[in-house]
Amino acid sequence: MDINFKFGRNWQQFLDESFDHKRVTIAQQHLLKTLRLENLKGKIFLDIGCGSGIHSLAALAAGAEKVISIDVDPQSVAATKSLWRNAGKPRNWSQAEGSVLDEAFMQSLPKADIVYSWGVLHHTGSMWEALDKVTIPLATDGILYIALYAYEMYQNPTPEYWIETKRAYNQASPEQREKMEYDYAWEQVLKPVAAKGENPLLVIKDYSKSRGMEFWTDVRDWLGGYPMEFAKASDIAQHFYRQHNMIVVDIVTGEGNTEFLLRSVDSPSAGQHITDEYDIINISVATQPIDGFGYKVHLPEYSAFADTDGEHFKSPLLVYENGLLLGFPHARFESINTLGEGRFCHWKDSLLYSSSDNSDPRINGKTYSLRVPKKLDK
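^ that's the sequence the OP posted. Answer follows.
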């Protein structure tokens, strides 16, 4: 029995039932905000795992010189082509069916200034190979923009629980799937909102405001998305550095997927507009143990942009260990202490963090530094 999820069918349903140009505008705004760009003029944009095609269209609307959309699922390619036709068949937007795991196919693609793959590579059945192949069409001074399911985001329930849930969903009858969708939406998304005294229906109504997506489309995508792999943020950073000499320029968390921007170490001009916004400050103040694997550094001078109650993903501060991204930001306090592995959080007047191997950062011989916004650096 084939238990792989039919992504293309879900995306075509999204286009048929929920698509409008307001969603394209929202998707465009999210894309540019993450890339820290005003537009994509002069850029070649490659969308790997294009799905519905909405983000390809968003890149085109942002001024991309050329957009290439690829997907291994013929129904996703067909969905994207239908969007292309409705957009007037722009000559600078092409679509192709092919796998990111097919090296010859990836070699055949033009070099792109932005290689974009949002919520895709962990569904290939061979995520680490896909992460290697996705670099093939990246221009020397290009930016790799990928979104993956970070292992650290899913502790209760665990990643293992969700993988089994996805397998069960894909083997279920249509009636059973519908029940699983409603149960998931209530228990995991809406009920916690209601428990805080807020209106859970607004979550559904306002869902498109993030990336232009539709609530129930994403519920089906989440429950059905199989095959599936999770990855730790520190493992992603280490893998790209060791295998491709690439570093993480930025990491954005807070949604189901964690977004990574990466560039080659040999091309400092790539993403320079982002790195120029920050200073790198060595941690030279006293570090004190908390509990378990957790340690604290007092940073009252940076409290203005720290995470706080109600703003758990506010801080842009990142922590580096030996020059590479330490691990997962905005982590829960208890996970820093009990699990460690590079999790950290900039909370109010302090940095709470753990080393990548759970050793004592005061004596392990490693260096630690902070990425701090220049405009707020005191």
